[in-house]
Every structure is written in C-alpha cells, then in structure tokens.
Amino acid sequence: MACALATGAMASDIPEQVPVSIQAPDTFYHRPPVEKRCFSSKAVEKQIKEMHSRLVGVSPKLWQMFQNSFPNTLDTTVFPEEDRTFVITGDIDAMWLRDSGAQVWTYIQYIKDDPELAKLIRGVILQQLEFICLDPYANAFLSDTTKVSHWASDYTVMKKGVHERKYEIDSLCYPIRLAYQYWLLTGDTSIFGDLWKQAMGEILALFREQQRANGPKTSYKFQRTTHFLHDTSSNYGYGHPAKHCGMIASAFRPSDDSQIFPFLIPSNFFAESVLRKAAVILTKVNKDETTAKECLAIADDIRQGLEKHATVEHPKYGKVYAFEVDAYGSHLLMDDANAPSLLSLPYLCPELVPINDPVYQNTRRMVFSEDNPYYFSGTFNGKKIGAIGSPHTGLNKIWPMSIIMKGLTSNDIKEQRECVSILVETDGGTGFMHESFNPDNPRDFTRSWFSWANGLFGELVIKAYGR
C-alpha cells in the first residue's frame, strides 16, 4: 500500500498534503490523489458526495474545505497492518491515545455500512489497548516499540516504544469511549478479550493510585529540562498537592501542558462517563461483576468529588464549573481549547452534562468571554473574531477546535453556521484547519497538518448543513 508506515518510519516517509503553491489561486481543494490515500471508506465517500449539493451553493470554498478536512484522517494518518491500526496525529509521527481515539471517532457512525472501516477502527482500539498495557501513564507511542524516543532524557520511567510520558486522564478515557461505541454499533465482542481485561486492570489501578488516598507522592512523577514552564511538573515532578476527595488527579492537560491544580474538572467528568460505560461491557460481555463494581465505585467517588468541588459561584455568571481544583479550596477559572474542556462537556459526556444544563450554560458564557484568561480576539477583514486558546500555543492564538466545539455544543443552527463561516474565513489560505492562529492574521498559524481538528470541522459542517 502506498501509504504503509514502515517500522520506525520517519516523518519524511509519510505522505504530505498537496502543497498549496501548486494549486490554482481560486481553488482550496487539496486532497491527496486516490492512489496516495492511506485508506478509503465507501461510506465516508458517500457522505462527502451527499454534502455536495448542500455546500457548493453556500460557498465553493466551504465545499472544497469539507472535502479536504472530513476524510483527512483516513487519507493521510491511518496505517492498518493485520489486526492493528497505527494513527499519527498529522505532522507528528507518533500515536497519541487521545488524538487517535478522537480522529477515528469522526467516522464511527458509518461502520455499520462499511465493514472495512469497522475493521480499521477495531484495529485502532486493539492498538490503543496494547499501548495502555505497555505504559498506562504514557500519552503517546512510537510505531516501533523497540525504539527509544527523543524524549528519553525526561526524568520519568521511559520505556522503549513510548514517545512521551505525560500522564493525562483523558488518554485512558478516549479508548474506552471508542470501544464502547464500536461495540454498540457492531455487536463485535472480540475486542474484549485478555488484552482488554489487562488494559482495564492497568487503568483502574492507575485511577485508584491517582485518587491520592495515600498522600501526594505516587509512583508517577515527571520532569523535563526545558525553557517552558508548562512542559514540566513542580515539586520534583509530583506537581501541586492534592487533597483526597474521590476525584482523580492528573499531571497534564489534554494540551500536554502541566496542570496548576491536580484535579482537572472536565477530565474527571469524562472519566466518570467512560467508567460507567466500561462497567456495562464488563458486566454484559465479560461477565465480570467484580471489575464492573470497581469501575462503578470509582465513578461514584468521582461523582462525590465533582458535586463537592467542581462548581464555583462567579460574581458575574453565577454558578460555573471550575477548570482545575485542589480540593483544599483553591480553584482555577479558565478553559483551554483542547478537549476534554469545559466547553466540550456536552459533546463528550452528554449524559452527565447536557447542553441545557444551567451551570454549563453559565460556564459557556464565561469561557467564551474576556473573563476567561485564555480567550483571545482580534480583527480580520473588518470582522471581530474571538475564541479560546491555550498556554500550549501562547498568547493571542485562538484554536479552530474551540470554534468547532462551540458549534458542536449548540442546538442553534444559526450559531453552528456562524462558526463554520468563521472557520472558512480563517483557514490561512490553506483549505485546512490548524492547531491555532492569530485572530488578526490567520496566515500566522501553528501546525499545517492537524488531523483531529480537520475531522472535527467535518463533523460540524455535517451537523450544520447535513439536514
């Protein structure tokens, strides 16, 4: 296969996007040629064709960008081999548990109509479970598990095959979310064998340890020699102290930036959600009541912690969700564009935080305003543009992902389409989404090839125009 990822492949071996410079000035269509795509799904291609009549009349550029972005993960980042699928993030040649789960989630609804797509996603799940068993504290992995990462000098326990060992709760949540939905749609229980059981054992042991019932020091710590404060942890790698409260502590955010306070509220909501899903699988498929009860016990602990510590009375917005807390009384009011975020809660766990939840709506107004320290705005083409950024990309850089998530967590079709319009206007002339961009100059952006954001954009376009 032209797109096959060789063992230990370098970024130069991976198919690049079609350079913008070779395209005519009036086109934004940049899909790789068919013969150079990593994977082709009949169901996804059918969806693309069905969107043509709905989009081309709205904006030819929107139609071309949808074609670029919606299938981008399948076109350029998936490498199936036997019963495993390795997924790179785009311009970084490594597989993140979070990103890979989110990247293929874009296509999960099509697997009933496409057995080959179902097989590919099955391979992603098995690869994720295998990586969790290698090191549940790691967030990203190499395609060759005999290789040593260039982050091997980090002050933590680095194993071969681990690309980076930044412990983030959501890294363990996305694979469970994906496996549960795959099972619901296909009825395939073959993924829930010994590898699944071992991975769940690793996840539950880690979550129990990180509930910090035994004090601030745990088996995990992380330090890095770096100029960037958010790239390492304080207190000799253990981070800020956490008071035992039922929630799970973590060291890094979904942005791969270090936390200020150890209990990240959106990730704890996500953990509660997936633990309850895992309990259903363990009960119905594995007939393992003991492990299912352990999942529910931790989920109940998290629920108690969230009820006691997750909300804060804001003088302007009323009761809102905090971003991070330490259970000693300290809290951080902000949001980061990376999901799980406070903004993304109805998208990731609607059964816990529905869109019409009053606290969520208060929080939504807060984080999409200048009362969020990581809300940035600027003026482009005479229009004011504002959205959420991240310490990961610094000041005055907003993330398309936050604009996309604003649309995905809205029931207002006008708001959804306004978000799409902003994203089309701020692509920086590339026809794709990016990690972040300067709201005064969208051509000043980070990451030209960011598959997760591309797929999310496709999801939003279908939600806003595919009805």
Give an overview of the whole structure.
This protein has 467 residues and is an alpha+beta fold. The protein has a domain at 77-353: Glycosyltransferase (Alpha/alpha barrel), CATH 1.50.10.10. Helix content is 39%, strand content 11%. It has 14 helices and 14 strands. It has helices spanning 42-55, 60-69, 72-76, 97-105, 115-134, 169-186, 194-209, 265-284, 289-309, 345-348, 358-367, 400-408, 413-425, 451-465; strands at 78-81, 84-87, 95-96, 140-141, 162-164, 263-264, 311-314, 318-321, 324-325, 331-332, 375-380, 383-388, 436-438, 441-446. Strands 3-4-5 form a 3-stranded antiparallel β-sheet. A 3-stranded antiparallel β-sheet has the order 6-9-10. The longest helix is centred in the middle third of the chain and has 21 residues, at 289-309. 53% of the residues are buried.
Map the helices and strands.
Blueprint: H1 42-55, H2 60-69, H3 72-76, E1 78-81, E2 84-87, E3 95-96, H4 97-105, H5 115-134, E4 140-141, E5 162-164, H6 169-186, H7 194-209, E6 263-264, H8 265-284, H9 289-309, E7 311-314, E8 318-321, E9 324-325, E10 331-332, H10 345-348, H11 358-367, E11 375-380, E12 383-388, H12 400-408, H13 413-425, E13 436-438, E14 441-446, H14 451-465
Antiparallel strand pairs: 1-2, 3-4, 4-5, 6-9, 7-8, 9-10, 11-12, 13-14
Helix pairs in contact: 1-2, 2-14, 4-5, 4-6, 4-14, 5-6, 5-7, 6-8, 7-9, 8-9, 12-13, 12-14, 13-14
